[in-house]
Structures are given as C-alpha cells and as structure tokens.
C-alpha cells in the first residue's frame, strides 16, 4: 500500500481561465515545485500518478448530459456565451480545451478516491481539485466540473455507505452540498465566511439537509475578520464531534486556503499556521475514524505566491506522513524560481509565525460574541439530529 496517491501531471495546469483571472494555475505549479524541492513527492510511500480524464459516463454521475455537451461546445468555441449553463461569464469565461482540462481535474480526484477506497493508498490528494461550486447543470465560481462531488459519487457507487465531506474553503461548498442534500449517506460540513458578505450567498445554519437526510448538511457561517483562534474554536466545536457521531468510512476534504488574511477575495484572517493545523486535525480524524482513509483536494486561494504553495505543500506533507516543521526555510531553488519568473519576493519560511492556541468550546459559550453566536446556531441546527447536545 502507498502512503499517499498524488494525482499530478503538468497537464493539470491547463485548467486556465486566462490572464487576469484570479484562479491562476501558477498556484498549483508552485505548490508542486515546492513539494518536490522539499523532498515530499520523492519520499518513500508517495505515489505520483498522472490522471486520466473523466469520461462522459463518469461526468454524468453528477452533471447533466446537456451541461456536458454545453461545456464541450464552449471548449471548441471559446467565444461562447451560455448564461443558462454558467459559461462565458466573468467568473467562468470559456477557453479552448476547457472540457478536457476540467475532465482531467475531475479524473484526478476520482482516481485518488478510488485508490484510497481500494486500499492501494492510505491517503489521496489532488491539489488541482476542489472545484466545489460547480452545479449539476452549470458552471459557477471558477468551477466547471465538481470533482469532489464526482469522487464522492464514485465512492458511493463502489459500495461506501457513510462518506463525510469537510470543506474549509472561505466560500460555502454549495455545489457539493446541493448534489448530496437529499442523500443520507453523505455528511457535508462547510466552514466559511458568512454568506451575508461573500459569494455564493448560501451556507446558512438552517440549511441542514433534505427530507430523510436531516442533519447531514452542516454550515458554519463565520463573521468577517475571524482569525486563527476563533476559526479553530469554531472548527473544534463542530467538526470532531459530528464526525465522531457520524462514524464515516472515508473522509473527503476540500482545502481552499482563501481564508488567509492576505487573500484578496475574502475577509477572514487566518495564518498559514492555522490552516496547517486544520489539515493536521483532519488527517488525525481520518486515522481515528476511517482507518486512515482520507481524500484531500485543493480549492480556492488567490494569494498565488505568498500563501497557496506553502499551504498545500503542508497538506501534501501531512498526507505523506512527513509533516514539514513550520520553521523550515523555503528552498533556495524555489525562491530563485519565484524571483526570476515572477519578479516577486518569495516567502522565506513555511510559517507565518501564527499561533494555533484557541479556547475550546468547553470553556463556555459567550452569547454576546459574534463567533460564538455563529457556532451555536450551527450546533443548535444539527447536533440533535446526531444525538448530540448543542450546549455542551
């Protein structure tokens, strides 16, 4: 068994909406370069495999045939404007080869999930994945095909009966929630900035699952400005107790790092160190609850050089069971590449110097605190469905 299956080929960089678009593939290129230079991808037990593109049969397990046809048409004619399918918008402009590039990302996440479910690997990672906004019949929020949803569907089709999905992107994981909202076999948990101030405008605590699946959609809507201590307090107050009650067979996670204080598209204030701590805890929960079965993807993240490569290199290192000490210097070769290619000053260490200390929920609930109000709203909405006391 491999320690981790990493879905990667340089062709994944082809998922590219063009110059000026926030979702620049430089972020995944620099992630892989950094992980290689730190020795993570060449370590024992790390299996790097070029993915095959998801075929139409696989894509149709989540997406409508009409939408797939629309993506193919837009892929052949990048001047297409198809608002009915979310294509040709500012968020999701069409580009040549869009279908092929999007299907490759999807294929990578599904392959990682299948490797974990089959026992070929303990963990699976696709840092190019995490395109969680795509809906069955439309593109949305920089996302064409919803690779986390496709991976979860593949797991269900392979016999999984209890899948947990945890999404720590600053934006609500609306597409994955929508696909499985009525499916009692899938628990979706999303921690995100409140929809009052951020796209996509969904993810309120009262979105809890459809008929027969009550309590299986969980949303923690955090106030703008939430930093490491508050975010980790919220995370620990909701995620571990629900996962332990749910007893999943496999854990699928999305690790958008746009919750960072330097991210230009949102308003939370985490450091790299707070984000890394969430990766560590999710890894440990997979081992505690799922015999280690863990599938992780990237997601959002628009501080392309300063944050994303370091964040997802930590994710890869944790999945490889070779965590990188946060005080580790970034390698000279990587720094030189960033400086010469992008004329930017690269980060010098694998840390922001942030603290991961937080007040556990057991320390008491403050009804006047905006963060505690948000957490309590979520616990009140879903904890009773899982036999948990929302107050303690």
How do the strands and helices of this protein lay out in sequence?
Blueprint: E1 2-7, H1 26-37, E2 46-49, H2 56-59, H3 65-76, H4 98-118, E3 121-126, H5 147-157, E4 163-167, H6 174-180, E5 186-193, E6 217-222, H7 228-246, E7 250-254, H8 272-289, E8 294-297, H9 308-319, H10 332-342, H11 370-382
Parallel strand pairs: 1-2, 1-3, 3-8, 4-5, 4-7, 5-6, 7-8
Helix pairs in contact: 1-9, 4-5, 7-8, 7-11, 8-9
Organism: Jiangella ureilytica
Family: Belongs to the histone deacetylase family.
Keywords: Acetoin catabolism
Describe the structure.
The protein is α/β, with parallel strands linked by helices. The protein is 36% helix and 11% strand. The chain has helices spanning 26-37, 56-59, 65-76, 98-118, 147-157, 174-180, 228-246, 272-289, 308-319, 332-342, 370-382, and strands at residues 2-7, 46-49, 121-126, 163-167, 186-193, 217-222, 250-254, 294-297. Helix 6 links the parallel strand 4 (163-167) and strand 5. Helix 4 (98-118) crosses helix 5, helix 7 (228-246) packs parallel to helix 8 (272-289) and helix 7 packs parallel to helix 11 (370-382). It is globular and about 55 Å long. It starts with a strand and ends in a 10-residue tail after the last helix. It comes from Jiangella ureilytica. Pathway: Ketone degradation; acetoin degradation. GO terms for molecular function: histone deacetylase activity. This is Acetoin utilization protein AcuC.
């Amino acid at each position: 068994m491999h320690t981790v299956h990493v879905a990667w080929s340089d062709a994944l960089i082809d998922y590219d909406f063009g110059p000026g678009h926030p979702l620049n593939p430089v972020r995944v290129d620099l992630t892989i370069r950094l992980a290689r230079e730190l020795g993570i991808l060449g370590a024992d037990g790390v299996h790097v495999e070029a993915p095959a593109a998801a075929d139409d049969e696989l894509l149709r397990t989540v997406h409508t045939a009409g939408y797939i046809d629309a993506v193919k048409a837009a892929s052949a004619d990048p001047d297409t404007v198809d608002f009915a399918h979310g294509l040709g918008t500012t968020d999701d402009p069409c580009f040549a080869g869009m279908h092929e590039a999007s299907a490759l990302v999807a294929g990578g996440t599904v392959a990682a999930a299948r490797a974990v479910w089959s026992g070929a690997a303990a963990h699976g990672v696709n840092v190019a994945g995490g395109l969680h906004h795509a809906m069955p019949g439309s593109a949305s929020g920089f996302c064409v095909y919803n690779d986390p949803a496709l991976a979860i569907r593949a797991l269900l089709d392979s016999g999984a009966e209890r899948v947990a999905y945890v999404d720590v992107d600053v934006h609500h994981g609306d597409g994955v929630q929508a696909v499985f909202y009525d499916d009692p076999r899938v628990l979706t948990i999303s921690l995100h900035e409140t929809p009052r101030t951020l796209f996509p405008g969904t993810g309120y605590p009262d979105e809890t699952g459809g008929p027969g699946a009550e309590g299986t959609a969980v949303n923690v809507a955090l106030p703008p400005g939430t930093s490491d201590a508050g975010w980790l307090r919220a995370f620990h107050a909701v995620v571990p107790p629900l996962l332990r009650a749910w007893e999943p067979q496999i854990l699928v996670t999305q690790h958008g790092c746009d919750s960072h204080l330097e991210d230009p598209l949102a308003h939370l204030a985490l450091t790299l160190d707070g984000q890394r701590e969430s990766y560590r805890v999710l890894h440990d929960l997979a081992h505690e609850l799922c015999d280690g079965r863990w599938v992780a993807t990237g997601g959002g993240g628009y501080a392309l050089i300063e944050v994303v490569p370091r964040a997802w290199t930590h994710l890869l290192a944790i999945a490889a069971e070779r965590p990188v000490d946060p005080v580790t210097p970034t390698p000279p070769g990587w720094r030189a590449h960033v400086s010469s290619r992008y004329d930017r000053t690269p980060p010098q260490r694998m840390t922001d110097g942030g603290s991961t200390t937080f007040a556990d929920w057991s320390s008491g609930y403050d009804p006047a605190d905006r963060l505690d109000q948000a957490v309590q709203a979520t616990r009140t909405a879903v904890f009773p469905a899982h036999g948990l006391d929302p107050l303690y």
